[in-house]
Design a protein that fits this description.
Elements (H helix, E strand, L loop, with lengths): L3 E4 L2 E2 L8 H5 L2 E9 L2 E2 L2 H15 L6 H12 L4 E9 L16 E8 L12 E10 L14 H7 L7 E8 L4 E4 L3 E6 L2 E5 L9 H10 L6 E4 L3 H5 L3 E6 L3 E8 L2 E2 L4 H12 L8
Parallel strand pairs: 7-8, 7-14, 11-12
Antiparallel strand pairs: 1-2, 1-6, 3-4, 3-5, 5-6, 8-9, 10-11, 10-13, 13-14, 14-15
């Protein structure tokens, strides 16, 4: 439950049943960490939101309005999560776009999630999901509101000892977790999965790719069959809220929790890309 929500800048938690976000999932969202009055990686999140608006032909809200509304919401908390939803707005029945769309801004602030501290130190267990991603380069990368693929995959387990599930595409290549991007080390090189046709281009994923050279780590993006990931010398999952969680087990296969993963996490924290709690 959100601590507080704004709809088009006004305190509210109600929106029209005719809004296309509700009717068709016609919109985008971003989830942003807030700490000590700062919105972490704000520019990168807004740039991805702009990319999504361009891709879906939704008018992008004024960025100064967005930062003002987000700043209002985090004033009363030391640490929390901001979620921004941009809907195309109201529309009639049918898929045709409104001739003159009036997008709605929905912005909410949530308490910081109470994840176990050992997730970021000792590592987590992940499972392999049965559901397979479709390929769709047009929608790949952006955070559109159609999250049914992740919902179906997440419904496959209720075991609280499993932190996330690995999602593969129809060609049996690993894409991401239901809520995270995936990295792995083999022979000193850091690899991450190819997201050209499926998955979300995570903000922290991009920051890790950028930081790798500063840490003298070779990094590569590649198509990742499951058996390749299973042979990893280290592996971890990441997103803007969890930061980095080492992976200690994939299904029944143990994975070493190594020093390189911790180096990357510390570098992200030093640059204030992730919370100090991660």
């Amino acid at each position: 439950m959100a601590l507080k929500s704004l709809i088009n800048g006004k305190t509210s938690d109600e929106i029209s049943v005719y809004d296309r976000a509700l009717q068709y999932g016609d919109g985008l969202f971003e989830t942003i960490a807030a700490e000590d009055g700062k919105l972490l990686c704000w520019k990168e999140h807004i740039d991805r939101l702009q990319l999504g608006c361009n891709r879906l032909n939704i008018p992008m809200p004024d960025q100064t309005v967005l930062v003002d509304e987000a700043s209002r919401l985090i004033k009363s908390i030391a640490r929390g999560v901001i979620k921004i939803i941009i809907s195309r707005g109201r529309g009639g029945r049918g898929y045709a776009l409104p001739e003159h769309p009036e997008p709605n801004r929905i912005m909410s602030v949530y308490a910081w999630p109470d994840y176990p501290a050992e997730n970021s130190t000792s590592g987590v267990n992940v499972r392999i999901c049965d559901y397979r991603y479709a390929k769709n380069p047009t929608l790949a990368g952006i955070k559109h509101l159609n999250r049914l693929e992740q919902i179906v995959a997440r419904s496959e387990w209720s075991d609280t000892s499993i932190a996330d599930g690995l999602m593969m595409d129809i060609d049996e290549n690993v894409i991401e977790g239901t809520m995270s991007n995936i990295f792995y080390f083999i022979d000193g090189t850091l690899y991450t999965t190819d997201l050209f046709a499926s998955g979300i281009t995570g903000i922290i994923r991009q920051k890790i790719i950028e930081l790798a050279s500063d840490l003298s780590i070779d990094v590569a993006i590649q198509v990742t069959p499951l058996e390749l990931l299973m042979n990893a010398h280290e592996a971890f999952m990441c997103n803007s809220i969890i930061g980095i969680w080492p992976i200690k087990r994939i299904a029944e296969k143990p994975v070493p929790v190594g020093k390189q993963t911790n180096r990357i996490k510390q570098a992200l924290q030093k640059q204030h890309f992730i919370s100090t709690l991660c």
